[in-house]
Design goal:
By secondary structure, the chain is mainly β. The protein has one domain: Porin (Beta Barrel). Strands 1-2-3-4-5-6-7-8 form an eight-stranded antiparallel beta barrel. β3 and β4 form a beta hairpin. The longest helix is centred in the N-terminal third of the chain and has 19 residues. The radius of gyration is 17 Å and the shape is elongated. The termini are far apart.
Length: 175
Amino acid sequence: MNTRTFVRSASIALLLLAAVLVETPAAQERPAPVLEFAGGALLFPDDGETIPEGFVGGSARFYVTPRLSIGPEISFAKGDNHDHFILTGNVTYDFIAPQSGRPARVTPFVVAGGGLFSTNEQFFDDAVSHTEGAFTAGGGVRALAGDRVTFGAEARIGWELHVRVNGFVGVRLGR
C-alpha cells in the first residue's frame, strides 16, 4: 500500500469513526478547550525485539459535543542517530459526559488521529529525511486533579508501526 492510499484510507476511517461517535446536541454545554502535555515511550518492533524511544508532545482538544473533541497533536522523539516529528489531527471520545458543567472525576476515553510521521536520520556524513502518512489509535483514562487540571495515562498503536505508552497533564482553559 503506498503512502497516498494509506493516508486516504486512514482519513476515511477517521471520518467514519467521528460520524459514529457524534451524539445529538444535548442541553449540556460543551467543556472548555484543553491543552495536554505528554511524555512517555514509543516502542518500535525491530527484528524480534522492541526498541524504546522517549518522546514528549502536546495537544489541544476542542469539544464539538460534551463528549467528542477534536484537535492537533505534535510529538517529538529522539533515537540513536535519528529523530522523529509526528503531527496528527485527533478525535477523542470521552465515555462519561460532564455533569453540571464539570468533567467526571475519572473519564475513560478512546482517541484516533491521522497526519504525518517525519524521520531525520544521520548515516556517517549523510543526512536522510523522509515523511509518510501516520495514524494512532488507542485509549486511556484521565482524572481530575483540581478545578482545571487533569492527569492520566494512555496507550496507542500507530504507524510508522509503534506502540505508544505515556502519561499526561491537561489544563482546561476556561470554566
